[in-house]
Design goal:
Elements lengths: L6 E2 L15 E3 L8 E4 L6 E3 L12 E4 L5 E3 L1 E4 L9 E5 L3 E2 L6 E4 L7 E2 L8
Antiparallel strand pairs: 1-11, 2-3, 3-6, 4-5, 5-9, 7-8, 8-10
């Protein structure tokens, strides 16, 4: 396992969410307690496994609609254009496969700091 890198959220210039004031830890509609409650980028893709660096091996599980969402945990995975390798586990609003559970890039979550302080690791 590599080194966990904490980075601030990507700027709005990349088209990613930037309002971190609405994020907190608590209970959401799917994950019972200790979840990160935050708004994702509308259209963000949820992948089966965020550890795979080659997109050809990813399985698209679904997409997020941008509404308030709960993220169960986070982990290190493949680096992405956000300048880190943090991925958040969640459920898809628009499921494509197996209930739509999977990982979303940290840059698609408006948490402000990645990984979000206090959120459990997957």
């Amino acid at each position: 396992m590599g080194t966990l890198v904490t980075t601030p959220v990507a700027s709005a210039a990349f088209g990613h969410p930037s309002d971190q004031s609405a994020c907190s830890l608590g209970s959401g509609p799917v994950f019972i307690s200790g979840a990160l409650l935050c708004a994702p980028r509308a259209g963000a893709e949820v992948w089966w496994d965020g550890r795979v660096s080659d997109p050809a091996w990813h399985y698209l599980m679904g997409r997020l609609d941008g509404s308030a969402h709960d993220f169960a945990c986070c982990r290190e995975g493949a680096p992405h254009r956000g300048g880190n390798n943090i991925w958040y586990y969640t459920w898809s609003n628009e499921a494509h496969a197996t209930y739509g559970l999977g990982y979303v890039k940290s840059t698609d979550v408006s948490a402000g700091m990645h990984p979000y302080p206090g959120l459990r690791r997957c």
